[in-house]
Model the fold of this input.
Amino acid sequence: MPAASAADLLTWYDRHRRALPWRALPGETPDPYRVWLSEVMLQQTTVTAVKPYFVKFLTLFPNVAALAAAPEEAVMSAWAGLGYYSRARNLHACAKSVASAGGFPDTEDGLRKLPGIGAYTAGAIAAIAFDRPAAAVDGNVERVMSRLHAIQTPLPTARAQIRLFTQALVPDRRPGDFAQALMDLGATLCTPKRPACALCPWMLPCRARAEGLQETFPRKVKKEKGILRRGAAFVALRAGDEAVLLRTRPPEGLLGAMAEPPTSDWLPDYDPAKGLLDAPLDARWKRLPGVVKHGFTHFPLELTVFLARVAADTKPPEGMRFTPRDALETEPLPGAMKKVLAHALTGPMPVVAPKPVPVREPDLATIPEPEPPPRRGPIPKLASSRPSDLARIVKKAPKPVRTR
Done:
């Protein structure tokens, strides 16, 4: 069985490389800021999901200095929807470090010292942005290398072995293209299911394909699902401007520094029937049917949603704020809370009970005007005794002509 060759992979890459908004064109010098930003966004997220966020970030923060100078709220708001929000906080902290240092370090060791940059991200930036012979091992690369060598050790234990195999293949020339070629190979051909082995430049040296077991790699330890947690979420709408009551979560922990409608604690034994005890203010709360379901990395969540419309002069509780509905896009709302608001705001809205209208006493001194007589309806037409038009145009059939 022949050995895998970096040259074969690069030849394939030159023909089939993906066009991505953060990727430099052939002959262009890669921008370290774009490389770093894309690699952080792509952690635990698909290319399709990242593309619009990447373009939006470049519009708002065109360089690392602009990102470093931006308020944290603006960064979190631009990130909202990408998930894993600690990445956004680390991204902002890293931008400040890089801006103060005057630029990105160009080595793996230097990059590893920056906030939020681990082994994979450091290797990817070093290889792609600075042409260092570094290994960048993400999920796609793990799958390719596991199949190429038929690695029986399950993940995550196999990661150290996979990294050694990958590093051994990194060429001195074009290491950045090699890193991107491996990513493209895993994303387009060596896919989790039904890989296109016949089109793969490493088809012959792939041990898993030779054994017909390519879809069984990489080996993985079965993950145990986290315990379901439940809670209540409270969506309060202010009459007049339709503003929504929101608050900011603590800066550390799950969904740190993100915005949300007030919620209860999320507990395995939470009783939604007692949810009103956690309401942020007194109102006529209505429990909406169904629940909002959301999956986090370590546990699934179900939220029962309560909805109320409050008076226009209602003051927000301490630490909370009312945000107009047309300004919700500026708030750093995570995906789970967007689901809560969609669940609450797409149905019929509860209304504040109207004030009773006073009944006017009858005015006995004024003679009421007489009611007008009822209008007569149209007089129906009598049926005509004349033959209908249809009868006049239908003629009797002519008598047959006798022939001799």
The radius of gyration is 34 Å. Residues 316 and 322 are 7 Å apart (CA to CA).
